[in-house]
Amino acid sequence: MSISIAISVFVAHSVGAEDITKIRHIKIIGIKLNYILGGALVLMIYLLSNPILEMFLDNGETIRVAHTLILISFWGSIRKVRIYNVKGPISQHLYLRN
């Protein structure tokens, strides 16, 4: 979520500067950064989830189910990234100001 907030700040700055091409560049960087950091987090959780779960749980079946649910939730959060085009209200607002 903090990546989205940071990207929003950069986009707002570019909107103020009326620089549409920079907004597209920031969007690409934000999406790549989200996938890289999210993928690293999923990989880390995938590799370390069983030892972490074993610290709190002692039933093997419960650990297996918890591991599966963790993987589903983390991959689901990465797949929710939506790519928006900058041809909407922002670009109309910029063109109206000229």
Task: List the secondary-structure elements in sequence, H or E.
Answer: HHHH
What percent of residues adopt helix (DSSP H or I)? over 70%
β-strand percent reads under 5%
Shape descriptor:
rod-shaped
Number of distinct helices: 4
Structural class: mainly alpha
How far apart, in Å, are the first and last alpha carbons?
34 Å
- The number of domains is 1
Main sheet record: none
Using the CA coordinates, give the radius of gyration.
Answer: 20 Å
Tell me how many strands there are. 0
Low-confidence stretches: 81-86, 88-98
Mean pLDDT: 77
SSE layout:
Elements: H1 2-16, H2 20-56, H3 60-79, H4 89-97
Verbal overview:
There is one protein chain. The protein is an all-alpha fold and 98 residues long. The protein has one domain (2-97). 83% of the residues lie in helices and 0% in strands. It contains 4 helices and no strands. The chain has helices at residues 2-16, 20-56, 60-79, 89-97. The longest helix has 37 residues, at 20-56. The two termini are 34 Å apart.
